[in-house]
Amino acid sequence: MSGNLPVSLRPRPSRAVPAIICGLVLLAAGVVLVWAAVARLTMGVWPPFFTAVSDWLATLNWNSPGSWTAGVVLTVIGLVLLLAALVPGKFHALPLRLDPIREVSGDSRAVMSRRAVARLAAATCEHIDGVSTASATASDKEVHVSVHTPLHDTADLQHWVTDGVRSRLQASGLDPVPNITVSIRPGR
């Protein structure tokens, strides 16, 4: 069912850190270029580091293997950055089943993030007798619950946790409900 969700319900992963880094690098390059242009206009010559770079580039053999390698590496880096900006991220949410509402016309859809599913599963476990702490992780097809208990006999507890989490996820409207696995760490 996740393939039928509209694009607006498929959020892209946050790319804030790479965007900030690229923005700061471009800002620094812009500041340097403006400073060099102002220096050129006021003093009549380019700053020494501009002429040093152009003099060094003029001495290079552009057909050498080192130049070709550097060109290929920079091209690959540019393509990777371009693809990172254009390719959407993986879908990280599970679809919810919504009951039709008379007041709402049209097609309504909702999703729950994998983090929310994991938190719901862990919170459900902590209300089950015999569970001291619980944590959970969720993927598109599976929820794994890790439970700590002071009990030594954990066979019944595993069934209680599995059934409790499954019924809570069904009640929340997940469609389909992911497979639930439970690992229990008994107390000492």
UniProtKB/TrEMBL annotation:
Domain DUF6286: 76-185
Keyword vocabulary terms for this entry: Membrane, Transmembrane, Transmembrane helix
InterPro entries: DUF6286
Transmembrane domains' residue ranges: 20-46, 66-87
Organism domain of life: Bacteria
Any Pfam family the entry gives: DUF6286
Protein name (record): DUF6286 domain-containing protein
Native organism taxonomy: Bacteria, Bacillati, Actinomycetota, Actinomycetes, Micrococcales
